[in-house]
Amino acid sequence: MSEADGLSALDRPNSYIGKSVPRPNLDRLMQGRGLYVSDMVLPRMGHVVFLRSPHAHAKIVSVDSAAARRAAGVIAIVTGRELAEVITPWVGVLSHLKGLKSAPQHAIAIDRVCWQGEAVAAVVATSRALAEDAAELVDVHYEQLDAVTDMRTALDAATPVIHPSLGDNLAFERNFEAGAVDQAFAESDAVVEAEFVFGRHTGVTLEPRAVLADWNAGEQRLTIYQGTQAPHMVQNLAALHLGLEEAQVRLVCKDVGGSFGIKVHIYADEMATYALSKLLRRPIKFVADRVESFNTDIHARDHRCKGKIGVKNDGTITAFEIDDLTGIGPYSMYPRTSAIEANQVVNLIGGPYISKNYRARARVVFQNKNVMCQYRAVGHPIACSVTEGLVDLAAMKIGIDPVEIRRRNLIPDDGYPCAAPSGLRFELLSHHASLNKLLAMMDYNGLRAEQAALRARNIHRGIGIASFIEVTNPSAAFYGVGGAKISSQDGVAVRMDATGSVICQTSITEQGQGSEALTAQIVASVLGVSMERVRVILGDTDNTPYGGGTWASRGAGIGGEAALQAAKILRNNILKVAAAILQSQPSELDIANNSIVNANDGAARIELKELARIVYFRPDTLPPGIQPELMATRHFVPREYPFAFTNGVQASWLEVDTDNGFIKLLKHWVVEDCGTIINPQLVDEQIRGGVVQGLGAALFEKCIYDERGQLTNANMADYLVPMSGEMPDIDVGHVVSPTAETELGAKGAGEAGTAGAAAAVANAVNDALRPFGAVITEIPLTPQVVLTALGNI
Amino acid sequence: MSGQVAISLQVNGERVEAQVVPRLNLADFLREHLALTGTHVGCEHGVCGACTVRVNGDIVRSCLMLAVQAQDASVETIEGLSDSGEIADLQAAFRERNALQCGFCTPGMLMAAQDLLRQQPAPDRDEIREHLSGNYCRCTGYQAIIDAVESTAKARQAP
Which chain A residues have a beta carbon less than 8 Å from that of B45? Predict the structure, then answer.
């Protein structure tokens, strides 16, 4: 290292850390030369189409596939019972979520379907089109059962129990209490209550889920090509349920057309595809179509959360209380479970604020709708919308400005380390610095003046502010402690090749966030080589160290630290060889611009490519006893803090048309603190992309089920998402509070945007509607919701 | 399913003769018959824009057009526009601005953006947003894309 001149491994001349360098993998994607699973073709590949239940809840009386088996191109038609000979069922529970229960789920339904879209048979043919033709000839006889659809009545005695063996429809309940809640409410000058309603929505990855499974009976090995965020998790579970050793399964993940948490789970149809390949001894490809995506990609949110806040007349928040209810579909998803979102809501409510008086209940119930699970910013939008909605309602009640109540109650920036009301520990956050920066960026006072002037002209604009916290860099506390074989550590192997270039294998994955870029930036900076000489390999369980992957805003913070530590070891190894060649000492040498240089004056001594040539081709010329080791591997996992919390604040400026209920987003601001910023542009784009997904939830996105459990808008024309025409420009600012747990100091940033966007918009709408006395605590804020609140319809 | 039909067309300047079933859409023809997998299929009902290609100079959703309708047509895909260098500056602007993340929408987005720049060389941000409003992007939030198209337009206008 250059510690001699006071510089760290990263803070060096020509460091790429903190620089907005372009991602190395963009050109192939822009030229249409990426390789997504949907693009892949293997010899003898069969295509599977799943025949899916049209009913939300029904008994499968019979499946007659005789006619379909005779159809052109058909390779096989496989029922759930037949496939169960090859793959075992699973139960999505974790032991640290005490009391969580679920029923065994099969890859293909056997006796009963529990949601509209659950697969009842697999039709395998030589093309997708021929498989679809044949699927129409399969005759399934159903006996419809009562569907449990309304989460509010799922626990009523009169409601049928979806899985009788479980006793009731309650999957999970958590109760939490801290401080003196009743006393705090009693001593409050005002107490405000509201029910917050969140629409069920989904991720809508532009590339649908796709998997190509290739069982090679000769090698007794299954290669799975799949767009996934967690390759080793998929490897482990595919092996477990197919009765194979992990070493018999290889997971390869090439380009992934969007993930956002949708592609971090194990889906029944993916398991079925692995099993079909083993059963039929040939490659089988499954690519969901868009209707299937809406019916089977995990849904998220769908909470009804009653909230209560106490406040004193001086603005002091005294207590928070919530009662949260969510419906998760008929099964807890595997292996991460469907209780995590509600659990996160309990963990995060009130998190930015000083008050420690907090009571929470969360209940998770089964219903006959598509499965729900973790999607970008798990639980955060619920917790943030409820918390920030309550804070604004309290401010309104006692007549103080929304900024003022936050100033009085946000945890002071010098108050760390401390803990959330739920007990989660904060290392170092920056709520006040972030708020101050945000107010300056948006010219808060100027906007207030503009708002007042426009109100006089019957134009109704609103300002909404939402402070938030974000869980990043999760340790084993997230899943591992509950028994899930989901790695919380990541590994990186770095080696120098015979031309002095660097090859880096990492267990984190790329879905567009910039994992390749940040890994190359860190490694290049530490090694003193230019970035174009670093090649990053990821997404292959045969060719990367073991690790968790990219999810829960962990890639940069955990995988980045592993890359840093591995590169430091390699750097030392290179310097040892260089010292031997140059008859110098490692401490007197440095690496810069692809050459060994003098540490003191920077004079070039020997190029890395020359050093590599000697190491690989003329080791006979090295001094005796020198065994060069131009490869190093390091792993990292956070141990001190279970999660590296980040924080930030968002603001929305919008206009509500009170005649037609439409909301026009005018501008959005975000200040966030993810610690060390490796690539400012990539961080900003993660924030912007995350914000827009949150804005989709705020205004448009909702999976609309009818009372029979039919999804009525399972297509892109009827399920609305943000398009370029409706989205505002988003200004992003930063406060930097590095985590001391790592040398890198980076925390995550992938979910911050989604965490607070809807809360900011909802608060802005209520601010705009203040002259009308209307308060809305429901998203999406459709024109119908707005006009209803205004009493106009 | 009826029998196969012979079609003849130009794809990226190359003559292509093929036998296709009448129901085959142009996107699947390009991807499965010609292995031009840069044309992506995101929805198969004409909403997402990922399959946008150029047919006789106009952008179309190749999932909504049958291959047999492309008889005698000139079809250009992202591979063709990339290799000809026609959109090299636009691609460079996307790279500089990180105007793509997963990249799945990007071929269609580049097609639509180039179409705008050919029709309206100096669009303002609202016009860019409007012209791209038929192309889904779930990753970027659009702003970087708008910035990249705007900077390309300005650079092309510069003397």
Answer: 290, 715-717
